[in-house]
């Protein structure tokens, strides 16, 4: 008889941690709930033994924005300081997203026009960062991950963003990999390398894939509506 075992990361609510009511800096109304990712040992794909904690963060129950645990201290600062921190976090988010999207788009040596359009679409959501993001895009398009530049953007983002946000960045970037309907072994390995560059264990891969499928479905729906 075969015994199938493995490990994976699962999200939990931290029960004894107070909810930060109406404090979400993104939507201003949502409550921030303390969450954590824990590594689990799985037997026949069922989580059976809880292992170590991967990361704690806060998640908005209204807009799903996720924040590093430092948000608790940041919220005690003045509004202008909160805005400044949010601006920095936004910049790190955008840089990491454009760098990894561009890298994933060129990885198969076939940079499709749809992929370029998708990257331009994301870039247009950050008009104030246009020149910085264009530079990253042009650079990664030509040099890929040379000198670890893509991984460095992810690593920088990790210092200020939550694990949840980083997984969202990777899932959004990896939608291009799902274009042919399946994930090749090399693509799986690449995504695990991205996770490690973010300072996250490779066990988060399954969480990433689940998010990726949700995003892909949302994209399909959007395309059907257009
Ligand atoms: Zn919110």
UniProtKB/TrEMBL annotation:
Database matches in InterPro entries: DjlA_N, TerB-like, Zinc_ribbon_15
Co-chaperone DjlA N-terminal domain mapped to chain residues: 95-202
Alphabetized Gene3D superfamilies for the sequence: TerB-like
Zinc-ribbon domain: residues covered: 24-80
Domain of life: Bacteria
A Pfam family it matches: Zn_ribbon_15
Name of the protein in its database record: Zinc-ribbon domain-containing protein
